[in-house]
Design brief:
Structural class: mainly alpha
Strand content: under 5%
Number of strands: 0
Distance between the termini: 42 Å
Order of helices and strands: HHHHHHHHHHHHHHHHHHH
CATH superfamily of one domain: Tetratricopeptide repeat domain
CATH topology of one domain: Serine Threonine Protein Phosphatase 5, Tetratricopeptide repeat
Largest sheet: none
Number of helices: 19
Length: 344
């Protein structure tokens, strides 16, 4: 089914696939449709196959992958409702299932699949998949132990070094994280994540100039990442470079106008500059993008108070209290619903 033969393969497979006689035929048919560029029909074929064989893991994983590519996360998770790992489950399907569960914030399910993948198919890829899952649960000591045991085998991988550096950073092991990130960069100088994280580490070590340098290198490598401009803005703020901070925030919002931390910080600047009406616009946008941002509600309450709108200010205080209560169970972990000012 390579090259120009996708269309011919799809035509030959279509009559058999529609008879629902064999899930393998349906998978091949969907692959042929996708290969010829007919993605809607490929998804439709997988949907029909999933309805016919709801317990077939290969079909479920393929359908979940297509949904995830379309950014339909809940549908992707639903497609895996009856996904069950066995000794025969291919590594690719396990990794896809774990990625889908992570996207849907189903961390327990993601961990279970990632652990099985690492056990059955030990490799750098499955090891880091498990480590990333544990990191999202806030279990950085477990990640450090897990990766520490495997450093001898995988320590020459930049991806391994960046992953363990993330957990060292979470555990305030900034010097260790710095060393691992510098080694990762020596192995792959064009690795965005390494430069970005090293900027965060240097900021924690009070090396503002070094942090600025690393963020600028990261921006050169990935100019579409709003978080890098945001972190740069925070360092420039610490250096009392208000003009530089505003420029960096503007660049963050140019990259993603709904990036909540940057909208929130811009609102704070405007509020402190006695422009509460302008601040309200930014803070409301921050809340729309991230309804669990405590800082945005706090600042919005202040903005409404400065505008003399007491009822709205009180309402924001009530919402802030409710959001604090909602956020409480996830503070130990890294819930994506609550972005921190030090977003990595």
């Amino acid at each position: 089914m390579d090259g120009s033969r996708f269309q011919q393969a799809a035509a030959e497979l279509q009559p058999i696939a529609h008879e629902d006689c064999d899930p393998r035929v349906s998978l091949l048919f969907a692959a042929a449709l996708e290969g010829q560029g007919d993605l809607p029909e490929a998804i439709a074929a997988l949907q029909r196959a999933h309805a016919a064989w709801p317990t077939n893991d290969s079909i479920a994983a393929s359908l979940a992958r297509e949904y995830l590519n379309q950014k339909q996360v809940e549908k992707a998770v639903s497609a895996l409702a009856r996904f069950h790992v066995t000794a025969q489950t291919p590594e690719q399907e396990m990794r896809m299932a774990a990625v889908v569960y992570l996207a849907g914030n189903r961390l327990a399910s993601a961990q279970s699949v990632a652990e099985a993948a690492w056990k059955q198919y030990p490799s750098a890829a499955t090891l880091l998949l498990l480590a990333n899952t544990l990191q999202l649960e806030g279990r950085y000591p477990d990640v450090n132990r897990l990766l520490g045991r495997e450093r001898g085998q995988y320590g020459g991988s930049p991806e391994f070094l960046v992953t363990i550096a993330e957990s060292e950073f979470d555990g305030s092991g900034f010097k260790a994280a710095q060393a691992d990130l510098q080694k990762a960069i020596s192995l792959d100088p064009k690795m965005y994540q390494a430069h970005y994280l090293l900027g965060n580490v240097l900021a924690k070590l009070n090396d503002a100039d070094g942090a600025v340098s690393e963020y600028r290198k990261a921006i050169e490598l990935a100019p579409d990442q709003p978080r890098t401009y945001f972190q740069l803005a925070l360092v420039l703020r610490a250096k009392q470079d208000e003009t530089g901070e505003r420029q960096a925030l503007a660049q963050a919002l140019a990259a993603d106008n709904r990036y909540a931390p940057a909208q929130c910080e811009m609102g704070r600047i405007l509020l402190e500059g006695h422009h509460p009406a302008d601040a309200v616009d930014h803070l409301n946008t921050a809340i729309e993008a991230n309804p669990r941002s405590e800082e945005a509600y706090f600042l919005l309450a202040r903005a409404y108070a400065q505008l003399g709108q007491k009822e709205k200010s009180n309402e924001m205080v009530k919402r802030l209290q409710a959001v604090k209560k909602e956020n409480q169970p996830t503070r130990a972990g890294k819930s994506e619903a609550e972005e921190k000012p030090t977003d990595r």
